[in-house]
Protein: Wall-associated receptor kinase galacturonan-binding domain-containing protein
Organism: Nelumbo nucifera
Amino acid sequence: MALPFLLLQLLILLLPPLAASSTASFAKPGCEDKCGNIPIPYPFGFGDPKCYRNGYMVTCNHTSNPPKLYLSDSNVEVVEISSLGQLRTKSLVSYDCYDQTNDHGSISFNLEDFPYTFSDTRNKFTAIGCDTISNLIGFQGRNFTSGCNMLCIDTQSLVNGSCSGIGCCQTSIPKGFKHFIVDLGSFYRHNFVMDFNPCSYAFLVDSDWFNFSVHDIVGYMDFFNRNEGMVPIVLDWAIEGYTCGNASTSDLNYACGKNSECFNSPNGLGYLCNCSQGFRSPQRTRMLGIKDEE
Ligand SMILES: *[C@@H]1O[C@H](CO)[C@@H](O)[C@H](O)[C@H]1NC(C)=O
Ligand SMILES: *[C@@H]1O[C@H](CO)[C@@H](O)[C@H](O)[C@H]1NC(C)=O
Ligand SMILES: *[C@@H]1O[C@H](CO)[C@@H](O)[C@H](O)[C@H]1NC(C)=O
Ligand SMILES: *[C@@H]1O[C@H](CO)[C@@H](O)[C@H](O)[C@H]1NC(C)=O
Ligand SMILES: *[C@@H]1O[C@H](CO)[C@@H](O)[C@H](O)[C@H]1NC(C)=O
Ligand SMILES: *[C@@H]1O[C@H](CO)[C@@H](O)[C@H](O)[C@H]1NC(C)=O
């Protein structure tokens, strides 16, 4: 099991960074700016409550090597944080498998208590299988149900790298929802495809990461086990409840510091801070998002 897990870690590390600036150090002075190899830009932080803004606490667990980062005190593992409004975490894969019995695992991902939503530009709802009924049900902020249904008869009709409806199907998602569940089932309990496809899987995933391979639908739980049941997903974050237009710079809770500029988050969630022109040197970037008195 160690090898496939390392492989997932490796694949995640090989992904292009969410934004060019995500490697710079943006922590508050006196606060830890990294958890293992993962840079932690303010408003995110851990330890002393002065190190993070309300709602952006993360936990760095040193039990593992390298240490692992989690959202707040949840079990959602964070892989990368970009100061320009995105973070990458792991998300569960739901499965529906048949042989003598039916092994079934559903997933639910709830961000209701966090200032994040699932990124509509970076994620796709993805289902794989040849006897597959799958739905993504989103709520909290926006209610919708959409999905993918598929029947295919052999592996010859499937194409590596192609997710266009034969064995692999992807759909776009709307902006602005904070909770989803995945509903997964089959038309014929995989009876007609059992010899090559005993399982269906469905998940929301960073679409840059997932590349369908015919291998993925073959074998009992193979895709699930190979990925330790997890795939990377991208969340959008912003300072919620205000836009640059109505956030008061004199408000004690205003997030952007002296040398940073306010910009409205692309996903309409709120605002973010970007370093002002002329303040982009590595030393100066430490000040990003930090108020004058700090
Ligand atoms: C760190 O992770 C270990 C193993 O997963 C767990 O037992 C421990 O409670 C965690 N510590 C904290 C502070 O969350
Ligand atoms: C979404 O559905 C929930 C109940 O499932 C309901 O309470 C809520 O008002 C709905 N939201 C919208 C925007 O329709
Ligand atoms: C698809 O990719 C797998 C490896 O992931 C390879 O074994 C197989 O031969 C490929 N099939 C086709 C048709 O290219
Ligand atoms: C996906 O995999 C196919 C072959 O399996 C390859 O030709 C293609 O370049 C890959 N696409 C990406 C984006 O990695
Ligand atoms: C600021 O503007 C946004 C978007 O128009 C609105 O949703 C929000 O409620 C406003 N906040 C305040 C405090 O006025
Ligand atoms: C942040 O600043 C950089 C450098 O000027 C600029 O290229 C980038 O577009 C800005 N990002 C946003 C979202 O405003």
